[in-house]
Amino acid sequence: MKNLTWRAVVAGAVIVAAIVLLVPTFQETWWPHTKINLGLDLQGGMHLALEVEAEKAVESTLQRTVQDMQEELRKARVRYRDLALDKNVISIRLLGQEGREAFQKMFDEQFPNLKVVSRDEQGKDLVMRITLPDSEIDRVKELAVAQALETIRNRIDQFGVTEPDIRRQGERRILIQLPGIDDPDRAKELVGRTAQLQFRMLDETHSLERALEGHPPPESEVLYESRTHEETGRTIRTPYLVKKKVLLTGEYLQEARVAFDSRYGDPYVSIEFDRNGARIFERITAENVGKRLAIVLDNTVYSAPVIREKIAGGSAMIEGGFTDAEAKDLAIVLRAGALPAPVNILEERTVGPSLGHDSIRMGLVSILIGFVLVAVFMMVYYKGAGLVADLALVLNVLIIAGGLAMFGATLTLPGIAGVILTIGMAVDANVLVFERIREELRLGKTPGAAVDAGFSRATLTILDANVTTLVAALVLFQFGTGPVKGFAVTLSIGIVASFFTAVFVSRIIFDYFLFYRRIKALSI
């Protein structure tokens, strides 16, 4: 009897825990349990397929290399001309003979990851063509895709989407599912924004008009600032002649947050640099007092203030006539970091919530029909014992739902299919036990002995069948993608729940009637 008591306590504790875990799914509560989240196919949302332009990452790497090489050549006092990048190949003309040894020493020490494609003697000058080895190009591309995946994940997490599905597909593609998103255009802008923040000086020595005519100086380029007038809605584009040399980038950012102007209440983005960035920013402002510093994001000028004095502390602000949402999104992308390369949207699908509601309704109807058919069959074929199996089936569905809530799992249409399949599989264990009990009764054993023999002899067979199915479900979860994983999750929880209810709970009910109610015959 003690054995029956503690088993009943364990079963009751599991059932109560399942109910407690399920409550937050249907009603807001104070306890910090997660709830069952609905997938894209059930609550609507957005599906995006992106492709990372990994070649741009290689180009950006070589552009930074050109800038670094210019600095190192200046330090080594090597005379050169025509240092330029063309189709991922850096070409440089070394003037005369005297600087070649210094260049070679600098090249070997500072740029060991580069290789020389060709050397051409042109009179006294030496023209060299330099690029990255193929292995290094592959590494840069692989790193760009991996970093893009992590950056996009960070942005979406800060955006507040519940249970997004973000994964890599193939070499350069990223698949994104955003359930419950109600502003698809804003989500696309947030995900696809490169967010390369740069601080560059304005070129105030050359003519902006001549640059606009198509003749900018080699070291500068024309970039625009876009402002939208609140009342008229017109966008005004203001051109600036900006130096190509990047003095500071967003990689040194430590914090970016939305703040509001104390005078007019307009939102802006306040940024703070880390220790190295603060030191660089202080040096830039000290060396350029009285000049204009352009804050450039994705080749768009957001502001170009005059540096009044040296700025210590590593703080700055980005103004641009933002709305609250625009300022918030800009702060998110700056905190999450810049994408190493642009991304293209290859595929975009939006699932409306009405379709999701229809899917939920049909899924629940399918579960109900499957449950009723199985329950009726068990009652007709196994009579009173069938009612025990039906009760175990109800508890099985309850425990599956509680398990999904406990793990914060995402329920999808394939997940509902897993629940329906589990309903059918759950009674298989009861069928094995009941048929074994029938055989024992035919041999003339008492009801108590028949139940004991039926459960003990069938349990091993049930365990073997469930373990093999569970292994298959875990393999599906490990190697499957979104919908397959949803099916595997519900199937795995369902297998464990069905074994518990069919073997453990059903045995408690039989023992209760046999030992407490002392029934003389089994209805089976």
Mean pLDDT: 83
Number of domains: 3
Cα(first) to Cα(last) distance is 24 Å
Strand order of the largest sheet: 7-8-2-18
Number of strands: 19
User: Strand pairing plus helix content: what structural class?
Assistant: alpha+beta
The CATH homologous superfamily name of the largest domain equals: Multidrug efflux transporter AcrB transmembrane domain
Helicity level = 40-55%
Number of separate helices: 13
Main β-sheet description: 4 strands, antiparallel
CATH class of the largest domain: Mainly Alpha
Strand content: 15-25%
Architecture (CATH level 2) name of the largest domain = Up-down Bundle
Which outline best applies? elongated
Radius of gyration: 34 Å
CATH topology of the largest domain: Multidrug efflux transporter AcrB transmembrane fold
**Low-confidence sequence ranges:** none
Short précis:
With 524 residues, the protein is an alpha+beta fold. It has helices spanning 2-26, 40-43, 54-76, 100-110, 134-159, 184-192, 208-212, 275-287, 324-336, 353-406, 413-442, 447-479, 482-516; strands at residues 37-38, 45-52, 80-86, 89-94, 115-122, 125-131, 165-169, 173-179, 197-201, 220-228, 235-243, 248-249, 253-260, 267-273, 293-297, 300-303, 315-318, 343-351, 410-411.
Can you tag this structure with a few keywords?
524 residues, alpha+beta, Gyrase A, domain 2, 3 domains, four-stranded antiparallel sheet, 19 strands, 54% helix, elongated
